[in-house]
Every structure is written in C-alpha cells, then in structure tokens.
Structures
1.
Amino acid sequence: MLNYKSASEKDLQSEYTKLKDEYDAFCSKNLSLDMSRGKPCKEQLDISNDIFDVLKSDSNFLSEDGFDCRNYGLLEGLPEMKRIFAQMLQAPEENIMVGGNSSLNMMFDTISCFMTKGINGCKPWLLQNKIKFLCPVPGYDRHFAITEYFGFEMINIPMLKDGPDMDMIEMLVSSDDAIKGIWCVPKYSNPQGIVYSDSVVKRFASLKPKAKDFRIMWDNAYCVHDFCEKPQKLLSLYDECLKNGNEDLPIMFCSTSKITFPGAGVAAMAASDNNMKIIKDKYKYKTIGYDKINMLRHARYFKDYNGIVEHAKLHAKVLKPRFDTVIDSLTKNLKETSVAEWVEPCGGYFVSVDVMPGCAKRTIELCKQAGVKLTCAGATYPYHTDPNDSNIRIAPSYPPMQELKIAMEVFCISAKIAAIEKIMKQ
Ligand SMILES: Cc1ncc(COP(=O)(O)O)c(C=O)c1O
C-alpha cells in the first residue's frame, strides 16, 4: 500500500482514480448507515429485557430498609442502589445520591446549582465576572454544550496517552481564579477510550486551584464498560483526594444507561459532605424523590456491584467484535498510508480517529454523500471547532455487523480521498 506522504504525484493521481471508482460504486448502492451516536444496538437492549420480570403487581415493593418504593420520599435513593453506585464511583456510600434516568441531567443540575449557590464561601458563579472551564480534547460534545449554555469560556486541554495534559492543568488552575472546573471522563474517555493513569489521578487529587470554588466534574460513564481480557483499572479519585484533604474537589457521576437502557436506567452522583449539602439543598426544591420503583427493579435485578460487572460482560461480548471490525478496517486500509491515527480502546463506546489535518470535514462530507452518517466534524471540541479539522468520532455499537463493515470501508476510502485531495492542493 502507498504511503501518501512520500508518494509521487503520479502514484497519488492513479491511487485517487482507483479510489474514486470504488467510492462511486458505494454511492450507487443508496446506503443508509449510521455510526454517529453511541447508542447500544438492539442485541444489547435485549440483554436486559428480563429486568421487566423483576417487579410484578404482587411483588413486595419495600426497599431493604422497609421503605415503600411506590410512595414519595427517600430523596437520596434506595440504600441498596447507593451501595452499588458507591462501588461504581469508588466513593463512600454515605456520599452517594441516586437520581433519575440521566447522569447528564445531574451534571447540568450541578453546574446550575453552583451558578446560584456559592461554594466554599465564594459568590455564586452567576455573580462572578467570568467563569472558565477546562475541556480535555477531543471530548464529549454534550459536556461542552452544557458549559457553552451557561456562557462559560472553554479552554482546550490536549489529551495525552494517559489522560489530559496535567502540566498544563496544574499551571492554569493554580494561576487563574476564573477557572472553576474541568470535564473529565476518566475511564474509556469519550471519544478516545483512554483510561487515566494512576499518576494523572494522583495529580488531579493534589491540585491546588487558585479558585476556592474549583470543581472536577468526574463523569465515570464507562466505569464498568470493559471489553478486553484484562480490564484497565482506575484509581479512586475520592480516596486520593481524601489523602490530600482535597475531598471537596471532585463531583462524580455515572449511570446504568449503557448497562440496562439509555434513558430508562438509573443515574447517580457522589460528592463530599460539603458539596452534597449544597447540592441536596437544591434537589429538595426540585423533586420530592426520584423513581424508586426503577431503582428497586435495578437493585433486585443486579443484587450487587458484581451483578453489574457480570452484566457488563454480556455487553462486551456484543461490542468487542464490533470494535475489532473497526480497528481491523482502519489497520488494513489506512495504516500504511500514514494519513490517519487512532487509539485502540479496551472499553467504552467509541473509536477516535485523527485523519490528516484539514481533512475531517471533507471525510465526513464524502461519507454523508455515500450514505454513511458520522458525528459532525468539530463535535469533539468546544464551540464545534477542531483547530486541526482532524478528529472524527466513530461509534461502532449501533449498526449491525454487516453494515458496520461496509460503513468502515466507505469511511476509509473517504479519508484517503480527502487526504489525497489535500496533498494535491498543497
Ligand atoms: C461521557 C458520557 N457521559 C454521559 C453520557 C450520558 O449519560 P446518561 O444517559 O446517564 O445521561 C454519555 C452518553 O453517551 C457519555 O458518553
């Protein structure tokens, strides 16, 4: 296979003609394939169907502490669910709050809460001049959408092989008190699938922010979503923070969205006593209590944290071949061209591909014209602006395997066409 960067113009031209023929052949097939969002496929949804048999009209609806789950109350959620989430979030049970059907919703609420309630003796963020947030990139578009919604200035932090650039984070948070937070997906980050190393977690736990109201938004959405033989371990941020007297720094989130059903699972958060006091004070106005029947259903279905881990393995069986298909296709079609790079993840929901700088938009456009939908270019960056126009997020979970194979063929051809066009122009 041709290395595009060192190939002659003549060779590139004939490669381009060949690729265009292949591309046109795909276009004539009227494909309609979707690799845009990280949604579980039907096979994965079916895994959890028997959760609906757990509760019936003649079931006992009492939680383990005797609370009737059909009624109002228990703002913090069922103790049996708190115990499970404590292990998922690696934080003490008494610092867990179980919420509704979405962790993203709890993240939004947390920021909204800090807008109107000051933390650590500081003014509410709404009354402070400027609020800045650090955004490891590439990252999760919906995180950036929340901080954009509240009008915060977002600062890109490059992701390195074992987590975000900690030198840059330490330098920025220790010198600028307008920086109030950072978004983190510490295990199988969205989209690169990177697991933060012990050193990165320890450095987060020992940050010395200039702003007394700086908080780490630790979104552990993929805490049990391993699909390799040896799952990668994440150090407990909360434990590390405790060692440094920094337990007020992190606010942690997760949910069962991609374990049972997205939008119909159970979400939770963990935070120190000081943070929880402020957060619960807001929740008590917001709701009398979340859906405890769904919590009970989940608690009885899984029984304990180990039940969650075992269930996640069933998802892994469906997901692994899909991820293998994506990686195999990238390796076979793009490796030797040297115009694309990617990270091979061991879990999570995405594969992040960096095509040749200046080629992401064009690659996505070519895919679209051939009937393959990808996440929009720039979506993995704040303000939808990828300064290199290079990052593309691939979501392999949703399309059936056969379709995924075809979609990846189209993707690789498109990335190659876009790269040759760019090189020729230069
Ligand atoms: C990093 C991350 N956090 C949160 C979510 C959404 O979680 P939930 O369904 O609990 O709101 C997603 C969904 O893709 C995600 O990738």
2.
Amino acid sequence: MKITDVKSYNLRYPLIEPFANARGWTKTRTAVVVEIRTDAGITGWGEGISVPSTSAIETYLIGHSPFETERIWEALRGNIGASSGVDIALWDIMGKALDMPIYQLLGGAFRLKIPAYASGLFKKEKQDITQALMDEAKGYVDAGFPAVKMKIGFGDAYDVKNVAAVRRAIGDNTLFAVDANCGYDVGTAIDVGQQLADYGLFWYEEPITTDDVAGYREIRHALKVRVAGGEMLQGRWAFRDLLQQRGVDIVQPDVSIAGGFTECRKIAAMASANYVRVLPHMWGSSIRLAATLHWQATLPDAPQALKPIPSLLEFDMTENGLRTELAKQPIHAVDGYVNVPQAPGLGIDINRDVLEKYA
Ligand SMILES: [Mg+2]
C-alpha cells in the first residue's frame, strides 16, 4: 500500500460565548486536520497544530507505505505540529487496513471505558461569575463526572473565592483540579497554592511556564498538591528535563501537539522510567478526542494497585462544533465515563459536510 495524496484543512469554529483562561480570551476554536489517501482506497484522518509543507509531502509521504511510521516521523521532525497530525492519520490507515482499532495496534487496552473529568469552569463575562461557576460545576457532578477542572490564574482574590465556592458546590467526593495556564511566576504560584491548600485539590496544572523546570521543582517542594504540566511540549526532548528532574507529578502530553502516537509512546515510556504519571491533555476536534481515547486506553495504571489513582480523560465541556459535529458518531460521556471507539483505526467517520462548513 502506498500513500497517494495528503490534504490539510484549517478549521475554524466561532464561539457563541467567548471565555478566558489566565492567558487571554478565546473567541474561536481551531483545528488543523490532515487527510491521507492511499492506493488501497483507505483514507486516514489526523489532527495536528500545523500544516505539513508541500516539499515534505512530496519527498517523504507520497509513494511511501503508511506503515513506515517511525521513518516518516523522523523525516518530519522539524515540524512536530504537522508530524502529529500525519502520524495520527497513518495509524488510522494502519488500523483500517488491519481491521483493528488503534488501541490494539498500540499493544492493547487496559480500559475500554475511561473515567472522565469535566474540563470547563472558565472565566466568562457573567455578572455573577461565582454563582455561574457553582451552577456549572454542580451540573457536572449531577451528570456523573467523578472529577472537574477549573481555570485559575486570575489573581489570588478571584482564585481563592471561586475555588472555595466550586468546592462547596461539588462536595467533598468529587476530584477537583485547577489550571493556571502558565499565568503565574514562581512566587505567585506558591502563594496562591498555599491559599488553596484547604480545598483538597487533586492537581495544580501549569502554575508557571513549562520551560522553567527549576521553577516547577520549587513549586513542587513548597506545596503538598500534585503539580501537572506539559500540554504544549513537542517531542521527547522537550519532556526530558521536566521528567528526569521531576518537575511534575503528572505530565500531560497532547497527542496532536507532542508528536502523534509514535512520539507519545516514547514520552510515556520516559515518564514511566521516571515514575511520573501520564494524563493526556485533550483540547481539539473529534479526531484528537478519538486519538486521545485510543492512546489513554493503553497507558497502564502506575503504580498497579487494588484501587489505582484513576486515569482520567480530559473531557472538554466547552462549546466546539469541531468536537461535537465533525465525527458522524459523536463521543459522549455517560455517567462520567467515555467509551473507547471500537471500529477500525480511530473508529470514527468524518462528516465531509461539516469539514467543508468549518474549513
Ligand atoms: Mg491545561
């Protein structure tokens, strides 16, 4: 089987209601989707964050076998944002060719139903943001989610007031993570973390920029909470120091940013060797969500235990037609769990009308 055609789509979905994290307002959701066709009539789909160049496509993809994932990844490694999408599409093709879901090709699933955390609770232009956050959080608990994640990083007054309110709304039995999206420096991150110590946080995500491994170590040693990060890092080299120096308790590679399945397996192996937990980041279209489910299914519990710390899927609760409309089979959370797709490859079919609508 040979690759015959590679096409990229820049998708754009304008939000009805903008929202903010610590770094800025989001008014549009985007996705870079790649479609790879073969002479066997099999088409694969991937999602990255940048488009592969015409010369890379002509030199390293057209005419080559879609099974050569390692060789193709190395050829494209100068643009990991693009190689991520290409790699996911190649695994989709391999799965379809072998009539197997990707999680089987990756070595088999440890779980086919993944417990999910509701990822939302952004800042919005609401008159009473605290009440709005409480209502939103309560809705997630009522829908059966075992965990929620809230955006912080807006200053200690906002963070402490609203974390306290959301903890009251969700009760003591729901796992609760916070995410500052690199909005703080080390001193502020420690100060805010100390003020949040009474609210039983499960993890404190991206308190500072992930480049600052020494800063992460300071924060980890100053606080009792688990520290998480790594969602924007690309390639195994970017993760190396963070893992070897134990900058985080939880590392969060994103399959569409860090380098696709081929590279994320290596990052997970490096995390395992350094006793760092892997909980993938997920913020994208139906393609990235399906890819994340397949990869996360294959991550073993660490440590193995009678009652392991759950491998929680990031389930984006915000409005995004690219996630809810692009696949013909929408991926839902039911009672706080999301099923791993069972059809060959990624296990989803792309709705071409939706693809054209948002391209
Ligand atoms: Mg995050």
3.
Amino acid sequence: MFDTGNIFEAHSVKEAIELLRSNPGAKLICGGTDVLIQVREGRLAGVDLVSIHQLPELTGVTMEADGTIVIGPATSFTHLAKDPLIKKHLPFLGQAVELVGGPQVRNVGTIGGNVCNGATSADSASTLFALNAKLRIANSRGERVVPIQEFYLGPGKVALGQDDILTAILISREDYEGFGGYYIKYAMRKAMDIATLGCVVLCKVKDKKILEDVRLAFGVAAPTPIRVPAAEAVAKGQVFSEELVEQFGKAALTEVNPRTSWRASREFRLQLVEELSKRALRQAFSNAGGEC
Ligand SMILES: Cc1cc2nc3c(=O)[nH]c(=O)nc-3n(C[C@H](O)[C@H](O)[C@H](O)COP(=O)(O)OP(=O)(O)OC[C@H]3O[C@@H](n4cnc5c(N)ncnc54)[C@H](O)[C@@H]3O)c2cc1C
C-alpha cells in the first residue's frame, strides 16, 4: 500500500494547474516511477497527488510547420523509442531511452518525468542538452519557454514552481537536421541500473570526413547534466582522425566535475569521461555518414 493523501486526476493541463494551485502541498505525478518510490520510502508520505498520466494533450510526438519536433512530456519511453518521427529524425534519443530501467519502467516512465526529477543520471537528459532542447512550461499566469541548460539548478533541483507544468519539449530543426549521434550508458549492469556515467556525441559530417558540428554532453559528470564546449571546439571544423579523437577525449576532461559515490570513484568516472567521449565520437561520426 502507498501512503498517499488525495489523488486528483486532471482531465486537462488547465485543470491540473488549477488543482496544483488550489492544493499548495500537492505533487504532480505522471508515470509515478520516481514519485511513488518517494512515497513508499516515506519522503512524500501522505502527499496529495495531481495526476497527468496519459493526458492526450501531453502525449505523443509531432512536427510543427517549421520542422520543430514537439515531444509531449507524458510520452512513455517505449512510445518514444517506437515513434516514427523519433526514429527518422532523432534515432539517438530513441536509442538513449531504450537504456532506461527495464521494459516495465519504460512502459510507464515518461520523458517529462525524467527531465523534471532533476537527476544528473537521467538517461534522456544529456541527449536533450546536446540537442539544445527548449522546455515549454505553463502555469496559472501563462507560459514560458526555457532552454534546458537553464532549467537544471542543481542535484534534483529544476526551475519549476508549485503550479508549473512542463507541457512540451521542443527540438528545433537546425539542432537535429543532418546530425548523427550516439549515447553510451556505462552502468554496473546491462539493465535495471542507473548510469555511472552517460555520454552522448552528436555530429554533422561534411564530405564524409569533416566534422562540421560536434556536440558532447554528459550525465553524472557533474551535479547536473552538462555540455562540454571546450571539447566541441577542439573537434569542430576538423577532419576526423584517430589523433583528433584522442584530443577530443582529453579536452572532455577539462570541464567535468564528477564526484565519488558508492557507484564509482571520481577517478574512475574521469577515466570513463575520456574513454566514452572517444567511443561516442567514433560511432556518432559513422552514424552521421562519416568514413575513415
Ligand atoms: C526500477 C526503476 C529503474 C529506473 N531506471 C532508470 C534508468 O535506467 N534511467 C533513468 O533515467 N531513470 C530510471 N528510473 C527513474 C524513472 O523511471 C525516470 O526518471 C522516469 O522518467 C520518471 O518518469 P515518470 O513519468 O515516472 O515520473 P514521475 O514519478 O511521475 O515524476 C517524476 C518527477 O517529475 C515531476 N513531473 C513529471 N511530469 C511533469 C511535468 N509534465 N511537468 C512538471 N513536473 C513533472 C513530478 O512531479 C516528479 O517530481 C528508474 C526508476 C525505477 C523505479
């Protein structure tokens, strides 16, 4: 049994906002794979819940006229990985979310919950950083759009107020068109485990050998997911080579700040930062049409 208070089921975003506003202690719940763990552990014991589970206006993936891909935050990982728009334009995001938990968690857990829980280990977050994702947030006073880099404030802390609801994850055409990518999750087990380190590289390749654009992002390499502009600058505009891959791996170390935890030491994570960025660059280059 879960020790919850009232459970309110919202039938629209507007109603969910009103329920959160009029119940100041209430917590938003979508798939519940994070929230219900906290209820069971006692951290949220007795809490009132406002559910947006499977609200149609928050679920699914669409494309706007200008090519912006709009991901509904209540879209489950299973849905996302199979979605035709994701498969065609953002296959590396589908690949990343297929590494979350196991099938049961992926059937219920959502990309919005993954971002809003503020965890640096969230498997979708580093790829969304590399994609320069923007987050549309609604509340009783209106709507705002926040770059994902500004949304993460610290470990488990995001820029959401009591009646704020993430209503869309937006990916602009210029941030995905022509890009290939690859996400590597290093964990102790192959499934049902949180990332010890997550690393994604996205790149655009010209004439099969020049890295026209390169993006590198990590989870668990700092208190929040991060981009590594110094490494991106080393590779951008360069002809792909093994020498460049080595330089890229070294440059990746310059802007990370991993910690020691029971999962791994800081030193081991630093080794992963260098090695995984090299492996992810090689695979992303190939996925983007590069040839050695
Ligand atoms: C067994 C198990 C294994 C797991 N393995 C992984 C893993 O490998 N990788 C990984 O990244 N995660 C993992 N998780 C964590 C979890 O499944 C994910 O973080 C998931 O994405 C959470 O989504 P949810 O819809 O269940 O979130 P919920 O639990 O419903 O909500 C999570 C948080 O986000 C807020 N929230 C949800 N939706 C919105 C919204 N639209 N607007 C504003 N706030 C919102 C909630 O208030 C809450 O604070 C695992 C969890 C379990 C139980």
4.
Amino acid sequence: MSVDFSVDQPIAALASPPGGAARGMVRISGTQVRHVLDHWFHPDDPERWNKGRTATMHPGLLRLVDGAGDLSISVQVLFWPHRRSYTGQPLIELHLPGSPCLLEAVLGEVYRRGARPARPGEFTLRAFLAGKLDLLQAEAVLGVIDARDHQELQTALGQLAGGISHKLTLLRHDLLELLADLEAGLDFIEEDIEFISRQNLIDRLSDARELVSDLLAQAGERMQARVRSQVVLAGLPNAGKSTLFNRLAQAAKALVSPEQGTTRDFLTQTVHWNQLTFDLIDTAGWENAASGIAAAAQQQRVEQLQRADLLIWCTAEGLDQLDAQSDQNLFATASAQASTSIRLVTKTDLRPDSRPVHKIFAQTAPDSPSQFQMVGVSVLAETGFDKLEQAIRHHLGSPPLRAGQWLGMTAARCQETLECVVRALDRAESAAREINTGDELIAVDLREALDQVGVILGVIYTDDILDRVFSKFCIGK
Ligand SMILES: Nc1nc2c(ncn2[C@@H]2O[C@H](COP(=O)(O)OP(=O)(O)OP(=O)(O)O)[C@@H](O)[C@H]2O)c(=O)[nH]1
Ligand SMILES: [Mg+2]
C-alpha cells in the first residue's frame, strides 16, 4: 500500500463485520459526502437532511434499481456534516439490515455515485491527517480492534485516551519553549542578553531526559513481557493432568486414557477467564528417570517450568506408599524450578473418607510443604473448581502496569526513536554543563530530540512510517 494523502474524494467501505447479522453498516467519508446519497436516499424529513448543521440521525429509504427491479430499503443515516466526526471531515454511516447481498448492492451503488473503496485503515488515516488523533492513538485504534483479552483492551484504550501522547506532547511543548529561548538568545548574542539561565536549561534538559528514559524502560519491558502468563500442569503419569487440561481449556484437545504415559509431548491452549487470560500447558507425566530419553524429557520439563509463571502439581487421590513417595520427591524437584506452585489433589471423588486435602499430604509426606497452596478437584464429580480458579487468579495476579501502558506494536515502533531522544538530550545536557559551549550547539541537539519526539507522535512523518502503521489495519476502520 502506498499512502494516499488526498482527503477530498469520498471513500467508502463496509464497517460492520463480514457475514450476516441483524444490522450492517456502510461508512462514507469525504468533503462532499452528502452528494453521494443525492437522488437515491429519500429522507423522512428532507428539510432536516438538506439543512442539518449538527450530527443527526436521518431515517429514510434507499432506492436501488438493479437487474431484479426496484428495491426500497429502510435505512438510518447518521450524518456528521463537518469536522466533528471520527475522520475530521463530513462522514456518513448507513445503518441497514445486515444481509450480505443487500450491503454489497448498497456499497456498489455508493461506489457508482462517486466514492472509491477505502484502503485498509484509511478512515483512521484521515482522522490522523485531520489532527484528530496522533500516531500513538491511531495505533491504539488498531490495538482496540485486535485486543484478545481484557488486559490488552485496557492498554489500547489507555493509549487511545492519550496516556503516553499526553506526556510526550507536554514534553514536546517544553522542549519547543527551551529551543525558542535559546534561539532568541542567539539573536542578542552581541548584547549578552540571556533568555534562560544555564542552570534552568540544565535542570529542564535533565527532567526531560529522565522522563524519556522512563518511557524507554517501559517500552523495553513491554517488548520483553510475554503477553500471557504460562501455567504448567505437571505430575506423575496418570495423575489426571490431561483430563484437567481439557476441563479448564473447555476443549477435548488432550488425549486421556487409563494407560500411563498417554501424553508424550506438551500441549498448549489459551484460557480466557473474566479479566484473566493465560496459556495452559499439559505435560507428559513425570517419572524417576536416571538416563536416556526419559532423562532428556525431564530436562525439557525443567526448562519449561523455569519459563512458567505457575506450576500446578497434580497428585491423584489414592496413591500407594511407593508412588506417594516418588510423587513427593518429584514435586520437590519441580517446585524448586517454578516461581510459584499450587499442589492439587485430583480425582477427589475416589477419596474413601472426607479427609481435608492437607491431611492427605501430611500422611504421605512427613515434611508436608505447607507453604504451597493446596486444593482438591474432581473432574468426574465437577467439584473444587471454584477454589482452583481462586488459587490460579491469586497466583497470577495482575500483569505489571508499567509495561501495560504500551501496545506491543507502538513499543516496537518507538523503542529506537526513544533511544535517539535520550541520546540527543544527553548530549544537550552535557554540552550545557560545559561553560564554554555556545547555545547554538545545544540547540542542534535539542532540535534533534524534538524531531524524534515528533516522529513518535506523528507530528513528523514519512510515507514509510504511515505505511507501516496503517497497512496493519483492516478495511472499514
Ligand atoms: N475417578 C476419576 N478419574 C479421573 C479423573 N480425572 C481423570 N481421571 C482418569 O484418570 C486416567 C488418567 O487421566 P489422564 O488425564 O490421561 O492423566 P494424565 O495425567 O494426563 O496421564 P499421562 O498423560 O499418562 O501422564 C483416565 O482414565 C481418566 O479418566 C477424576 O476426576 N476422577
Ligand atoms: Mg496426559
């Protein structure tokens, strides 16, 4: 895609998801957008339609003439006549029954009447070009559309609301003022008039550098942060891990059988709970393995645990003394690798009496690990899942908020530029600390920092940057 900077010609696209639905929406934006509907839209109140000066909804009929004859479609037309629209220019949304054929026919007519098909992200591009959004916010629009869970949505909404933009805009104004003072001083260099003291200059440069360094650190954390937590199910063969995996993942994905060693490799499934998303990993049963493939497999599991945020160690109810001992030993090995663990008794329906869970461990292991949270579940009897969910939520907690301010794509785009800003501010500050350095040299670095902040916000942009950002959008947004 190459960026089209012309904003006059109306563009149009289907703005509702493809496929049948109760309602569908066609969006049209352009300076003379009203004329696209001339002669085939018949508003219930023509006077209001023709003279309306504020954003209003206009019910009416769309008359289409196609091969099959005349078609009258009942529509609601939302019309923003001037700049106060999403795109910052006149905008129309046609709301009509969501039949794909009907929407296609209407869109075809819109194109015949002078609009051209919108490119991916072109509505948001126009909003950006009209100054309605900066580049960080344009990316946030995409982040909102693509959000896969509550946390990602919150991050995108924060960025759309101007979280980072606000900080950078204030910084940019401050640096512009500094530059203006420095340059004003340069004009009066002969008279020795100073518009800003060196100390004030140093302090403000230092504050700016600190702010940008902090943003850079957050962007860096965002780049490293795994978006989702990893929860690993482990335990002896036949402990009921795969059965539990299927129950928690709400999918019959893992093979389950009474045979030991059913799961040979690991399986991953993303689990979405209200406000919490994590990757659940089912692993092969642990065995005491001294050598060979089993030892290698065990090593692989250890590495997996080191990457995990939570280990759920599954111990089946009713193990004999020998298995209970080996379960205890392997659990000790596994939990030493994991950052946190839950000890889970599975198949509690097999329990002969109503012993509480911690008593089971107390019996099988004298040095019972009381520091681990203990929970019991039965997939068969569907019991214990509330407690297990509580325990998982407790351990995963909320993701770090600092990194949560940045959308991944924004962090990726801005990291290098933020580094340039820090370096330029650093140079400017060092120069300012040298008594003999002239203001003109400080101004050079300050200008460089300003340019780069402008690139992040999209005040300064190239086709290439816009291409990269907007080509990721879908059509209609
Ligand atoms: N009574 C009872 N049996 C269960 C329960 N959960 C699993 N099982 C049975 O336990 C056996 C082993 O289950 P799996 O889920 O395959 O165990 P696993 O830990 O994945 O086993 P491996 O993959 O071999 O390590 C199967 O026959 C399951 O039906 C439960 O809650 N109650
Ligand atoms: Mg299994």
